[in-house]
Amino acid sequence: MEFTWGTDVYKMNSSQRTTALLAFTSFAIYFGMYSLRKTFAAGTWDHELWGVSLKVWLVSAQLLGYASAKWWGIRIVSQIKRKHQKTALWLMFSVAYASLFALALVPDAIKIFALFANGVSLGMVWGVLFRYLEGRKATEFLGIFLSCSFVVSSGAVKSIGLWSMTSLNIPEEWMPCATALMFAPVLWISLSKLDSLPGPSREEQVLRTQRVAMGPIERRTMFREVGFGVTLISMAYILFTALRDIRDNFAVELWHGLGISDAAGQLTQSEWPITLIVLAVFAGMTRIKSNHVAFAWMLRILLIGSLLVGASTWAFDLGWINPYGYMFALGLGLYLAYIPITSVLFDRLIGALELRGNVGFLIYIADAAGYLGTTFLMFGYRIRSESTPWLDIIHDLTYFVSIVASVLILGTIWWFRRKTTTQLITYA
Q1: Mean pLDDT along residues 209-231
Q2: Which is it for the CA torsion 126, 127, 129, 135, positive or negative?
Q3: Listed residue (174, 153, 53, 60) closest to 115, CA to CA
Q4: What are phi and psi of 4, to 5 degrees?
Q5: Which residues pair with 52 in a beta bridge?
Q6: SS3 of 148-182
Q7: Cβ atoms within 10 A of the Cβ of 186, count?
Q8: Angle, nearest 10°, between helix axes 85-105 and 175-182?
Q9: Which candidate, 127, 142, 276, places its Cα nearest to that of 213?
């Protein structure tokens, strides 16, 4: 970049322009995707179906659909070719729009299947979208910038959903579809631009290894190399995903439980500071050229985030922080640990161990475990504790997640040190 002070002209070279366009178009696409995925959670859906809250049924059905898509994504996302990515994304969005239209029309029992279809259709969006970003010098910045979209977008689209019901008088059952349609132009324009941008340069392919589509042999080979470490990370990710989805899907109930009546405002305002901090932390990783060093530091950040999850509840219990501080600290710790696993952690692991393949394969192993585990943990917990407020549930869960996940991350750190030491001895 260069600044010409006399004429106030700001110039970027072609690589920087590409990075900026990759960042903003991918962010806009995933932000728009959240209007298809999360807006329904702004509704209360407070009547019961078969003795269980309809909202619990809907959240669980969508999560189960998401989990199913993650298992399919292990194969599909890893082998999809560049020329088919745009078409695949449009197909996913189209099915999601249809599912929200059905949500407004069908009986309660069928709404469950509509949200299951919604989860299936959107469950592979992340992996296909991230294929545009991986293997670049700026992948950390791009990945975390994209990841920050779900920190702010979930609250933002739910705020819009609440506003559409209170100000526009849109019925609860039509609110998700109406809100999602507002973002259709954003999806169309952003995806068209993103698909036209160039792939990684030759220099980036050398620095980060070339990313290729993976068949069965490549998937088996990569899993033999990193299966143990990825399994430990995936187990921790199950816990982070469960906690994150409860905090996300029942944010309105959590704020009300904390005595904050302005839930719509807090859904957006509380997440922006978290977004900026997480973005700053991981954007700094782009300055680390060594893939080994960068991956090791990311594992340490995961550990810090995991410990902060438990520390936030402990501090709130002692009265050291107020409800706003509690939700901020909990969210910061959670996203410091959660976001790298969904994006840049495995990108650096592939570079560090010089693996042949792409990051979508590893991300979807973790995602599949995370969302399947979340569905059964949350649904089973809620059925057994239907009268227990969500604030009490998340209070106990934070301590459990913090302790167990920290142990798993420490195990991953040990595995990586042993793996890289063995690799250096072999090459020597």
Answers
A1: 83
A2: positive
A3: 60
A4: -105, 100
A5: 49
A6: HHHHHHHHHHHHHHHHHHHCCCCCCCCHHHHHHHH
A7: 16
A8: 150
A9: 127
Nearest to 125 by CA among 59, 220, 179, 191: 191
Q: Is 10 helix (H, G, I), strand (E, B) or coil?
A: strand
Tell the CATH topology of 16-427.
Answer: Growth Hormone; Chain: A; (1.20.1250)
303 phi and psi angles, rounded to 5 deg: -65, -45
What is the torsion angle, in degrees rounded to the nearest 10, for the CA atoms of residue 76, residue 24, residue 271 and residue 45?
-50
Report whether pLDDT(265) > 60.
no
Identity of residue 406: S
pTM, entire model: 0.73
Q: Structural domain boundaries of the chain?
A: 16-427
pLDDT over 90, % of the chain: 27
* Cα–Cα nearest to 396, from 328, 307, 313, 306: 313
On whether the CB atoms of residues 416 and 295 are closer than 8 A, the answer is: yes
Which tokens in the block code for residue 285? 């990783």
pLDDT top residue among 265 and 364: 364
Helix, strand, coil percentages, rounded to 5, for the chain: 80, 5, 20
Residue keyed to tokens 């600290």: 329
Question: Taking a C-beta distance cutoff of 8 angstroms, is the pair 298, 348 a contact?
Answer: yes
Cβ neighbours for 21, distance < 8 A, ≥ 6 positions apart: 193, 194, 197
